[in-house]
Amino acid sequence: MIFNVKRIQMLMVLMVVWFAQTASAKVKVVATVPQFAWMVDAIGGEYVETRYLATPTQDPHYVDARPSFIPYLNKADMLVLAGLQLEAGWLPSLIQNARNTKINVGTVGYVDASTVIQMKGIAMGLNQPVTRALGDLHPGGNPHYYFDPYSMRAIIPFLVERLSTIDPEHALYYKESASELDARLTMLIEKYQPQLKGLKVVGYHLSFQNLFNTFGIENPINVEPFPGIPPSPKHIAKVSLLLKNKGADGLLAEVYYPKKIIQTVAQIGQATLILVPPGQKKQDIVNWFESILKQLAKLKIAKGVS
Ligand SMILES: [Zn+2]
To answer: How far is the CA of 124 from the centre of ligand 1 (A)?
Structure first.
């Protein structure tokens, strides 16, 4: 009898250990920008543990390669990046210092989402001449396709493939939640395409080409004359005047660009300013996209009234 009690106790200890191991066996994913972490959350659910390096209020072209990032990268099973040289200034040294063979370039855990975007011919802006004078931040095309639900929908199979290779046990779960995410993004795109078509929107940085392309939005000018080149007073005046003369319906900008310039343009141009919402740490990616699209749709309504 005593022997049996001991056996049961032993069995319980083993079960606790097994549960603890199972619980800790989440796929650890580090993303460079939040949008990729939110995509992986939507597909991986409870089987993934995500973290992102550039916060929504940081310019992803210029992130401090902080030493505090190293432990996360060191333990990561997967690294998701935008590629197209967005992270070229800070990510390579972090990868090197992390000394984690799972996320080295060319491994299963190194997930450069732009490979899909390029393969499917989605990346925009490639026909522009690339010189230092014209801004050298986007030499391979627009790396900010993560603002576009259509582009992000395209990378779903790639994320599923890599997650399933790293964690085959939950492959079916990843496949099912991915198809749900795909359906939600498709519905979102179909809902807003007719509402946004024909809108004219000014950006601050050349970030929204893919988004604008998906929804048939025209982009007559941006506040930055070329990616990474700050606007001259003359260019600021030109953009403001265009807005004031209704050559565009609104201004869309990320929060990390100079507030003073953005507000000046919006004020002189008498234009509605839409700031890209930062989102929560754990954000439903579809809802986040919709929070931008909703604000853009209001521009269309305002246009119709005037
Ligand atoms: Zn850029």
So the answer is: 12
